[in-house]
């Protein structure tokens, strides 16, 4: 019999985040600060899973006594298929970034990314209602937030992706947004049209630039990258060069979705911590 890869501390509740890549993740630091703030006894670690081993990695963590986990790229769609009970917002997106192991064998999934994005956009005073939005990417990260963006009442949402067929799947997933969603190629983006450009692609994590032309951002437009740190540098450089009124990375979104996850696990909602605390040793 294969030995379980996890050896967890039985004196505390154990959580983790699973992804690939994962070494850059600030989630362990964030949840440690949340636990300290709320006097909760828990541990939280980052776990690397190979692309073909996500399900076995999750199961090994559950069988070792794990209480729950977060899921990041590229496993959010697989996570939705794995859970046996899920929130409506997760079913809407068919993507899960939150899992909780309940008594009785229930494996509950939810999507906290969308509410994290909306809260952080509001924190940065970036408006969505009646705005023209461009979203880059069509994977699990975008699926997780698209429903929340639709609910905020934008004028239009254009989606661009290297694989157009994957972008078109989003129209099937969100039929209530027909007429609102538009799929275009990178070459087909209109000059000066977009009030808000959101990068939900993973190109930055691999150190790749996006094939974004200059001039597509409207006067006074804003830019938001759902990744953070060095992964967001290329896109934020493009935003600055194109005169973005505001250009934000996704660390605030990470904080807000983490606070929602913490609440769903522990029943206590932590106060969102200051960004500079995350980078302290």
Relevant terms:
single chain; 21% strand; six-stranded parallel sheet; alpha/beta; Rossmann fold; six-stranded mixed sheet; 35% helix; 281 residues
Radius of gyration: 19 Å
Distance between the termini: 39 Å
The computed structural class is alpha/beta
**What spatial order of strands do you see in the largest sheet?**
2-1-3-5-6-4
Name of the top-level CATH class of the largest domain: Alpha Beta
Low-confidence stretches: none
What is the CATH homologous superfamily assignment of the largest domain? NAD(P)-binding Rossmann-like Domain
Shape: globular
Strand fraction equals 15-25%
Write down how many β-strands occur, each being a DSSP E stretch of 2 or more residues. 12
Estimate the helix proportion, in percent: 25-40%
Report the order of strands and helices: EHEHEHEHEEHEHEHEEEHEHH
CATH topology label of the largest domain: Rossmann fold
CATH architecture label of the largest domain: 3-Layer(aba) Sandwich
């Amino acid at each position: 019999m294969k030995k379980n890869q996890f050896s967890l501390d039985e004196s505390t509740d154990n959580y983790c985040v699973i992804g690939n890549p994962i070494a850059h993740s600030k989630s362990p630091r964030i949840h440690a600060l949340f636990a300290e703030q709320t006097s909760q006894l828990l541990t939280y670690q980052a776990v690397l899973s190979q692309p073909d081993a996500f399900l076995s990695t999750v199961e090994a963590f559950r069988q070792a006594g794990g209480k729950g986990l977060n899921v990041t790229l590229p496993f959010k769609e697989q996570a939705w298929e794995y859970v046996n009970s899920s929130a409506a917002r997760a079913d809407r997106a068919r993507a899960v970034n939150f899992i909780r192991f309940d008594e009785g064998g229930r494996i509950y999934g939810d999507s906290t990314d969308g509410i994290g994005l909306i809260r952080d956009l509001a924190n940065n005073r970036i408006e969505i209602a009646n705005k023209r939005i461009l979203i880059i990417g069509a994977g699990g990260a975008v699926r997780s937030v698209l429903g929340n963006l639709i609910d905020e009442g934008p004028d239009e949402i254009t989606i661009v992706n290297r694989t157009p067929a994957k972008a078109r799947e989003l129209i099937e997933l969100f039929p209530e947004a027909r007429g609102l969603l538009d799929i275009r190629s990178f070459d087909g983006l209109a000059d000066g049209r977009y009030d808000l450009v959101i990068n939900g692609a993973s190109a930055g994590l691999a150190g790749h630039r996006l094939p974004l032309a200059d001039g597509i951002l409207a006067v006074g437009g804003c830019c938001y990258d759902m990744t953070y740190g060095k992964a967001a540098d290329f896109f934020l450089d493009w935003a600055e060069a194109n005169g973005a009124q505001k250009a934000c990375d996704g660390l605030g979104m990470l904080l807000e979705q983490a606070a929602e996850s913490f609440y769903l696990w522990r029943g206590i909602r932590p106060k969102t911590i200051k960004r500079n605390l995350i980078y302290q040793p």
